[in-house]
Amino acid sequence: MLPYWSLYLEGRGFSYLEIATLMATIQLTKIVAPSVWGWLGDRTGQRVRLVRFGAITGSLFFVGVFMEPGFYGLLLVMLAFTFFWNAILPLYEVITLRSLGTQREKYGKVRLWGSVGFIGAVALVGGILELIPITLLPWLLLPVFAGIAVSAFLVPSERGERKPPAPKGSLKAIVTHPAVVTFFLMNFLLQVSHGAYYTFFSIHLEQHGYGKLAIGLLWSLGVLAEIGLFLVMHRLTRNFTVRQIAIAALALTMIRWVLIAEVTDMVAVLIFAQLLHAASYGALHAISVQYIQGFFGQHHHGQGQALYSGLTFGAGGALGAWLSGFLVDGFSTSAAFWGGAAAMAIAIVITWRGLRPPPEQ
Q1: Which of 124, 170, 325, 347 could bond 189 through an S-S bridge, CB–CB 3.0 to 4.6 Å?
Q2: DSSP code per residue over 81-147
Q3: Which of 3.40.50.720, 1.20.1250.20, 3.40.50.300, 3.40.190.10 is the CATH number of 2-155+170-354?
């Protein structure tokens, strides 16, 4: 959805600010939805059933797109279906880590299959969109949403895992810990910087003469680099500290946005910039998932995952998309990527000063 939805909205005649607002909606519901579903998952232990419910209900609300409502109608449709759609991944993260048990370092090898699916879908849809109008994109997405719902029923149901409550006030103590505050600020700024990428990268490439298939392949290249990173992430975490990995990844992300802003016409440099997605998403997401498990522990794992999704991907992603809309509307798509680079410079300073490793289990 992400590589082509902004192009679809542009094809429907929406302005850059309207596109930014609608794209921000995808991230906005992550502020509330993961907390609601994470709390329900922790309380009932029925995370697989909640994933199934979210997949089916989200798919049904997505059908509202075919009514071709105006800006406000589409805004409501996207708010509705993303509220359920955004519930799926945080719950699956907890299910996966619970299943892995003491073998948490193998998380990347499981997670990479989401990346494989993304590459296949983006390449296929990009090729089809070279032959049909972009306004038919929802018809290509509908079977993907249906496939998510069907696949959710292939995962065995969990037994209820009702656990004794954690000591009173412990969640507040975790959230207010200086290292945890730094962790959330780092990831918040990371997602602010990604606002231009997720909202205007496809439009930026189209303005520089790239076709839809080429755009899809460049998106896929970033995810391919992410897969490679997931395969070796367990080695990196053994040889480097969380702080070292985080600072290096943030610095590479800042370089990536500068390269995309200024040298888009040089294909070789653009390919290198997309390979840096291994750092800007893969490395930081992998250490973040384990960081949350280390700090939030067994009792608050679901709520910790929900806070991570809501405060960073949700609030940070929505703010980044919205701000990038103002930069594109007032200046250019390149200016939006420079804004992302500035956010990364601030994140590096904050991380350098305050990030500390999680406690040993």
Answers
A1: 347
A2: HHHHHTTHHHHHHHHHHHHHTT-GGGHHHHHHHHHHHHHHHHHHHHHHHTTS-GGGHHHHHHHHHHH
A3: 1.20.1250.20
